[in-house]
């Protein structure tokens, strides 16, 4: 599935993503984007914070309470904030568009 990813400079790249892997790993390992992910995808660092294009928000699995509590704490929190390590890429998300949030 393709991922349209906008980095912190506003540059968009299209990544040929892999299903079954988190969005964070797709953005960082496949797409080479600058995501620290210092907790390794364990939902405890919030450095994988992205904004999901509103049209795609409802296609995602509902976020967990743990994820919400962590991302809501970010000073850059918006309604379409998600932690990309908590989103699993699937073929159904082909074409998803996300923007990296500024670093806190
Ligand atoms: Fe740490 Fe997502 S990688 S919360």
Automatic annotation (TrEMBL):
Keyword Metal-binding: yes
PROSITE patterns xrefs: 2FE2S_FER_2 (PS51085)
Cofactor dependence: [2Fe-2S] cluster
Keyword Nucleotidyltransferase found: no
A Pfam short name: Fer2
Keywords associated with the record: 2Fe-2S, Iron, Iron-sulfur, Metal-binding
Segments forming domain 2Fe-2S ferredoxin-type: 1-104
InterPro entries assigned: 2Fe-2S_ferredoxin-like_sf, 2Fe-2S_ferredoxin-type, Adrenodoxin-like, Beta-grasp_dom_sf
Domain of life: Bacteria
PANTHER family: FERREDOXIN-2, MITOCHONDRIAL (PTHR23426:SF65), FERREDOXIN/ADRENODOXIN (PTHR23426)
Family under the similarity heading: Belongs to the adrenodoxin/putidaredoxin family.
The protein's name: 2Fe-2S iron-sulfur cluster-binding protein
């Amino acid at each position: 599935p393709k991922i349209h990813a906008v980095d912190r400079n506003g540059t968009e790249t299209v990544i040929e993503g892999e299903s079954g892997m988190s969005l964070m790993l797709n953005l960082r390992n496949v797409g080479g984007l600058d995501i620290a992910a210092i907790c390794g995808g364990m939902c405890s660092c919030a450095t994988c914070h992205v904004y999901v294009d509103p049209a795609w928000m409802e296609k995602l699995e509902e976020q967990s309470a743990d994820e919400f509590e962590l991302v809501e704490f970010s000073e850059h929190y918006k309604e379409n904030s998600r932690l990309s390590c908590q989103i699993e890429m699937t073929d159904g998300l082909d074409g998803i568009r996300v923007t990296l949030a500024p670093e806190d």
